[in-house]
Specification:
With 296 residues, this protein is mainly alpha-helical. The chain contains eleven helices and two strands, in the order H-H-H-H-H-H-H-H-E-H-H-H-E. 74% of the residues lie in helices and 2% in strands. It has a two-stranded antiparallel sheet with strand order 1-2.
Length: 296
């Protein structure tokens, strides 16, 4: 665990140096977040009207109400997946340009994503469907069943994240559809790092300030005046938002770096080779090599 955090810290510093070179990469997650909040806000109004009498309880809302709730959930997953994927495509494209030594403009990332918008939407539809299924599987009244379900869902979610790790750059750079991009993403991943691997890094260090502010907010809610609690709550929301924006940009940069390595076998001089080659490490008990050379 500590090795993952340490590697994540070094990856954070080096991806942050790329972000410092091209600060416009921050605009993508900021705009994506604003658009998602606006759309979800619009969805909240009909949801408030529809479920004002029954509430969100499968036992009381009936079949029709439950079907509408599932539909609403799917709309939320779809909006979030589509908007975030579209702007992530912009991050990946522009970050790749920076890796190549170019100086892209914000508009370049949008121009790269626009022609692929149908494939991005199809990918978002698939991702939203998987996300909805995993979310619904979490609904269990049995404590033991819930624990087992959470373990299975956690494993399934981790596998899905690895399989689809390169979907966005494949869509942008290889002109493939969503389904073909998923297959290509997993094939590229396997060929470069192997099949029995887990993430060898964690960006949790970026969230440490947010967690500290959250702890301070809980403390102030119990022991300090309401005014102090209100101020801490606002600061915590702001820090969480900034951390989420930063992580989104850094993850997009990291995907671009790893994809560039997987396709060309080349390591950008902006990052250390061992960090890229060891981004994914062999699972304990596995006999498979943790990674191979890049796919040239």
């Amino acid at each position: 665990m500590f090795q993952r955090i340490s590697r994540g810290w070094h990856l954070f510093k080096q991806t942050f140096s790329i972000l410092s070179r091209e600060k416009s990469l921050l605009f993508y997650p900021i705009i994506a977040g604003i658009i998602i909040l606006l759309i979800l806000g619009l969805l909240f109004i009909p949801a408030l009207f529809i479920f004002s009498t029954t509430g969100i309880n499968p036992d009381t809302m009936g079949i029709t109400g439950y079907a509408l709730w599932i539909l609403m959930l799917f709309a939320i997953f779809l909006v979030t997946a589509f908007v975030s994927s579209f702007f992530k495509a912009g991050i990946v494209y522009n970050a790749t340009e920076v890796i190549k030594g170019n100086d892209p403009a914000f508009k370049d990332g949008i121009d790269a994503a626009m022609p692929k918008i149908v494939s991005i939407f199809t990918w978002a539809f698939i991702a939203a469907t998987v996300g909805l299924i995993l979310s619904l599987l979490r609904e269990s009244d049995n404590p033991l069943g819930r624990i087992l379900t959470e373990i299975v869902i956690g494993i399934a979610g981790a596998v899905w994240n690895l399989v689809t790790f390169f979907v966005i750059p494949v869509i942008i750079f290889e002109d493939l559809g969503a389904v073909a991009s998923i297959k290509e993403s997993w094939g590229l991943f396997k060929q470069t790092w192997g099949e029995t691997v887990i993430a060898g890094f964690s960006f949790v260090v970026v969230m440490i300030p947010a967690f500290l502010f959250m702890a301070g907010t809980f403390f102030s809610a119990i022991f300090l005046p309401f005014e102090v609690f209100g101020g801490m709550l606002i600061l915590t929301i702001i820090v969480f938002a900034v951390s989420a924006i930063l992580i989104s940009a850094l993850q997009g940069i990291l995907v671009a770096l790893l994809y560039h390595y997987a396709k060309t076998g080349e390591i950008s001089p902006l990052v250390d080779r061992d960090l890229i080659e060891g981004a994914f490490v062999e699972k304990k008990g596995s006999t498979t090599s943790s990674y191979t050379s890049g796919n040239i």
